[in-house]
Prior knowledge:
Strands 1-2-3-4 form a four-stranded antiparallel sheet, covered by helices on one side. The protein has one helix at 3-35, and strands spanning 60-62, 65-73, 76-81, 86-90. The chain is globular and about 30 Å long. It is an alpha+beta fold. It has one helix and four strands; from the N terminus they run αββββ. The N and C termini lie far apart (43 Å).
Amino acid sequence: MNRFTIALAALLASAVVAVPANAQSSVSVVQFATSNPVPDANMQNEPSLGASVPSSVSLTQVDGAPNFGYFYYRGMPVIVDLRTRAIVKIGN
């Protein structure tokens, strides 16, 4: 192998290691919410990514992920950043 190929392989290997850590925590939060459904929340407006969740909506904390909570809307989990109450994911 030439130096360029070795350097490229090392760069790609380091990039691949960083991605699964973030993807894994995202998957476990969604899996937790999917495995632990709660009654649908009543909201005037349909939830959208980045929108702030009103304080009238009760959020369920995700075990092992203290910065995330969720609620259900029309049978779908809605993942929320508890620090900002911003919606970060809708659905599975």
